[in-house]
Amino acid sequence: MKRFTSIVSAAFAVVIAAAYVVIPAQPVSAQSSAALSIVPKKNYVIEPGKSVKDKLTIRNLDNQKTLDLTLRVVDFTFTDDGGTPKLFLAEDAPQTTWSLKPFLTIPKNVKIPPKESKTVDMSVAIPAGHGAGSYYSAIVYSSGAPDGGNVGLNASGVTLVFANIPGKVNEDLKLEKFGAYNVTKKEYTFIATEEPQDIAYTLKNNGNVTEAPVGSITLNGWFGSPITISNVNPNESLALIGQSRTYTTCIKLKEAEVDFNGQKTKSTKCTSPGLFPGYYSAKLDLFYGQNGNRTQEIIGSASFWYLPWWFIILMIFIIAILAYVIWRVYSWVRIKLYGPQYKKRSSRRR
Amino acid sequence: MQHKLFRFHALAHPLHHMGMVDLLALVLAMVIFVAPVSALRFQERSLYMNSTVPGETTSYTVSFRYMSPVAVGSVDMLFCVDPIPYHPCVTPPGLDVSNAVLSGQSGETGYTANIQSANHIVLTRIPSVITATDPSSYKFDNIVNPTDTTTSFSIRLRSHASTDATGPQIDFGSVKGQVTQGIVIETQVPPMLIFCVAEQVNDNCDGTNNNYYTDMGQLDPDSTLTAQSQMAVGTNASGGFAITANGTPPAAGTNVIDSPTAPTESTPGANQFGINLVANNSPTVGNDPEGIWTNAVTSPDYGVPNRYKFVSGDVVAYSPNVSLMKKFTVSYILNSRSDIRPGVYSTTITYIASGRF
Questions:
Q1: What value of ipTM does the predicted structure carry?
Q2: A39–B191: do the CB atoms touch at under 8 Å?
Q3: pLDDT digits 0-9 by tens, B249-282
Q4: Measured between CB atoms, which of B176, B190, B323 is closest to A214?
Q5: CATH number, domain at A209?
Q6: Is residue B195 within 8 Å of residue B231, measured between CB atoms?
Q7: Closest Cβ opposite residue A260 in set B234, B239, B349
Q8: Domain stop point among A117, A134, A165
């Protein structure tokens, strides 16, 4: 009995000792590849009672492991005033009013050998009599989770799926903000010490349909000719239902053709518009409206100052010189008007 | 000299006041009496395309409400990419209205269609005063849809008293339309989103070390456990991409090592799990993003050296536009208190790459 007690005590001590450390993970069993290529977005217009049959092309980029994916449909909304989706990943997440889940059919699993691609069928079927509006959900492709380790890694890709059902819809965009925009700080600026490169406008979507407005911005400054931004939504970015979406647009755009995975792609980025310091006014003219619905127009105006530090210092210097010159002229005129006694009187007062 | 200045002042002072008053009166008169009559915008404007399939021949119905109760003899319809009337007109690629036929009209009627070119129609009639208070509609058959699905197009509308759409405009406005993908899509060359995650990945995701977990070692209140993983991402989609980090902080049963919700320095001796995507020296771990393409960036909260954070669902890296492949190194730090509950603390972080809308 004594021996048994000592064995149990020793074993217990070992367990306690082991428990106070993070136990190193065991080698992981074979896991799926986590290198994939997918379609990021799909857009459809589907009339009630009709369906769309499409293909999803998925590529396994790994040269050793099979890509073993689980596919599922989740709803999403907006994260903030940008274009990043907020996915409702929880299994018990409530269905959104704009969910495409009931209408979207995809396979549950896909296995793709190394360095190969596979095309899987998907379909969106809208029942007859369904109301007009925008519906959207996301297809999540999940690779398998690792079996061990303290920090396991998992890669998932997402395809956003949008479907517009044509008909009479409720469209209501309200202009909330408009002006020069600092992309890094994500804020509108009225006085900019660094040259503004972006103009932005924020629209609140109170309708039941996603919107992609088009239009132009005209920028007028004290110097130079007016600058016209003729396409203020070149990416056809959407304001989701209920979202306050901020659209940023470059005052001057630099376009470049780049090679992406063997395909020529046009890439754009903002570049210095060469603004002179001073006051600028901007005019916004936007149009939106779904097929068969009223084309609505939003007009806005804004202004901002571009005052770089060197310009502020120069202005202070010039104002100081002007003040000095005016004071000297004023003194000279007073002396001429009232005679040298004015100067003496002033001196006596002091 | 003094005398001259006094005389100049005496002469100029009343003139100065008179000049100001006169100038003010002149400006007011110009504003009130000489201001030009401005054209009004057509209201309740709409365009219905019977088919939105690119390149298909279909019918368009243009509707709008006239606003000025004056005689109108023509309506100018110019099809352009840009809706703004004073901008240069670029014809929507593929669009052709040269065979358009005016097949129906309601409201203000009596028009015939005078085709000017592949993107220009003038409706003409004997000038008569606008009486319709409801929107007027004009249906055109045999219009060939534009072919570019990536951009919308517009019809610039103007009404004129003349019968040939010349002279001053009366009302104006634009309607917007867009072709979309067809009902059945069999093949297309879509944008791509390329994404890979592992302990080590190649720049182009064409290879990884196939290791998807990290052992961080034994917790010690006097030191920080570190680890790193990599992910590469790129897209030719004009909307760019976003990567979110999803999961729970490391836990052993119900015991969780909490994560700071704001970027925080690593603090040995406190329970802390955090990540960032830049090179750090306290402790030394991680790398700055690799790749020449500047569109893809780390989120501000995860891009501060020696500051760590983890909130499930946060965007850790993104690009607002097309981005060639870029590689991010994720640094993990794990600190613990001396009285931490014993157990195997583990978590799985799922990195989700998505397109942007």
A1: 0.80
A2: yes
A3: 999 888 899 999 999 999 999 999 999 999 999 8
A4: B176
A5: 2.60.40
A6: yes
A7: B234
A8: A165
